[in-house]
Amino acid sequence: MSNLYFELYLEKMDWNTDDYKTDITHLKSYEIANALVTEGKINDLHIEIIQAKGDWLNFNTNVVGDKYYIQTNLIFHEIDLSEDNKQIINKVIEKCELFFQDLEHLDTITSHNNFEILDKIVDEDGFVIKAREGGGWGVADDLRQLLSSQNVIAKTIRHQQSRFDGGASGGFEEILLFISGSVTSGITWDILKGLLTSRFGSELEHIKATFVDSMKFKRLRRSIADRIVEDHKDLVLIDFYKQESEITCEFKIYGIIEKTVTVLCDLEYQIKELKLERK
For 121-130, how does the pLDDT look when each residue is reduced to its tens digit (9 = 90+)? Predict the structure, then answer.
């Protein structure tokens, strides 16, 4: 069973101005504990919203452990909405409420949180691998299958799928995996890179792997939470990579106001710079 968090936004764009003036307003929040959530169910929700809204919609899903974070933006090309468009918004809300009411779920609440999940995944030294595919999906399954074919067990830290429906539809997929040191015993980045190159070829520029020291990483994550005065359980790792003598990592804090924390640190995981953005 999973926990599902859904945020619905209204995004109004004025196409009559040179800078495409945009106004974003939060409409609704839904939180469903211990629901039976599958990829098929998420697709069903997307279809329900598309049928009510029509074109011009952003539908973004992030899966972290047993938690699903979904953000949907209903896009209109006018600042002052017509009555017809207001009715469309009401219809979307009705569709969402019916969908969540019909989800199968249990009454008990799980005690897991994102911090505990990440703590269990990065439980020893290993590699963090990030892959991204623009314009379509499939890289996550391809990467998992490739590693599995080599008897390498990868744990998923975060999996994101973003869809855009408007004019020409599109989207992207991104996945962050962890391979523990015990699994990768004797495997270096050069070996991993060789495996990835044989499968993805020129697409390898969208895939990167970074060695992570488990104890230093856990200490760093706690320090970040203390500095930004946030509950550490809400920090979701979205990126981690090394460049020369520095390490960069990013975390998301999901909610009505989404926050991104970008941290630059030295090779001992000591914080040099920290930036917090809200949107």
Answer: 777 888 899 9
